[in-house]
Amino acid sequence: MPKISVEIPAELLADLDDHVGDDEKFVNRSDAVRASIRKTLDLLDEIDARHDRLDDDPATAAGLEGSESTEETDE
């Protein structure tokens, strides 16, 4: 699984940590962040569906159409 790094304000991290731990909603910060990303993406999909902006082709919806142009180059 790829790893990423993000900078967030201390207050937001403290709020996140309130939900992480043995008797909390999430076992660790990574689990909480993954759940938040999934929830946000689901909400965005719902909004797009209401506005008829969903694409039936998963490659196009993921931004993979014409993948040659999205590859990084050393130019």
Secondary-structure-derived class: mainly alpha
Give me the strand/helix succession.
HHH
- Using DSSP, what is the number of strands? 0
Arithmetic mean pLDDT: 82
Query: What Rg is obtained from the alpha carbons, in whole angstroms?
Result: 17 Å
Shape: elongated
Largest sheet, strands/sense/barrel: none
Residues in helices, as a percent range: 40-55%
Give the low-confidence spans.
67-73
Per DSSP, the total helix count is 3
Beta-strand proportion = under 5%
List the helices and strands and how they pair.
Blueprint: H1 10-17, H2 29-50, H3 58-61
Give an overview of the whole structure.
- Helix content is 45%, strand content 0%.
- With 75 residues, the chain is mainly α.
- It is built from three helices and no strands.
- It is elongated and about 40 Å long.
- The longest helix is centred in the middle third of the chain and has 22 residues.
Concise synopsis of the structure shown:
The chain is mainly alpha-helical and 75 residues long. It has helices spanning 10-17, 29-50, 58-61.
Question: Notable features of this structure?
Answer:
mainly alpha, 45% helix, 3 helices, disordered C terminus, 75 residues, single chain
